[in-house]
Write a structure and sequence with these properties.
alpha+beta; 23% strand
Length: 139
C-alpha cells in the first residue's frame, strides 16, 4: 500500500497589507486555505490562537489536499486552473496594493536524485504577472 506522504506540493500566496483577505477571495472566487490580517491574531493549524499578531497580510491556497502526485507540475497546474491564471489585471492590482505573489513549492529530495519539474510556461506566466516561483528543497 502506498503511503499518503507526498514528496511534492505547492501553494499560491499573496502578501500585502492594503486589502483585507475577503478582497482576494472575491477576486479569485476561491475560499483561501490560509489568511491573515497584519496586526491581528490568527488561528493556527492546531486550532490555537497565535501567540503573536501577524506581521503581514496573507491570502493563499494549497494543492496538497487536492492533488496526489510526487511531481510539482500537477500541483502547479491545479493552482493555475483553480485561480484562472493568468489574469491581465492582476499585475496592476499587485502594484496598487504593494503585494508580492508567489508559488511556493515543497520538494522532498532525500535521495538527492530528483529534479523539480516546474513547467517553463508556468514560470514565465508568474514572472510576466510579477510573481515568483520558489522551491524549498529538503534533503
Amino acid at each position: 500500500m502506498k503511503s499518503p506522504y507526498q514528496c511534492a506540493h505547492a501553494s499560491f500566496s499573496i502578501y500585502q497589507d492594503v486589502e483585507p483577505p475577503e478582497f482576494w477571495t472575491n477576486y479569485f472566487g476561491v475560499e483561501p486555505d490560509t489568511q491573515t490580517v497584519k496586526g491581528q491574531f490568527r488561528v493556527t493549524p492546531s486550532g490555537q490562537t497565535s501567540e503573536f499578531p501577524a506581521r503581514v497580510g496573507l491570502w493563499g491556497i494549497q494543492s496538497k489536499e487536492h492533488i496526489q502526485s510526487d511531481l510539482l507540475s500537477p500541483h502547479l497546474r491545479y493552482l493555475v486552473e483553480r485561480l484562472a491564471l493568468p489574469r491581465s489585471d492582476l499585475p496592476e492590482l499587485l502594484k496598487r496594493t504593494g503585494a508580492q505573489m508567489r508559488f511556493f513549492c515543497y520538494w522532498d529530495n532525500e535521495a538527492g536524485d530528483r529534479v523539480p519539474d516546474v513547467p517553463d510556461d508556468i514560470r514565465a506566466m508568474m514572472e510576466a504577472m510579477g510573481g515568483t516561483v520558489e522551491i524549498d528543497e529538503y534533503r
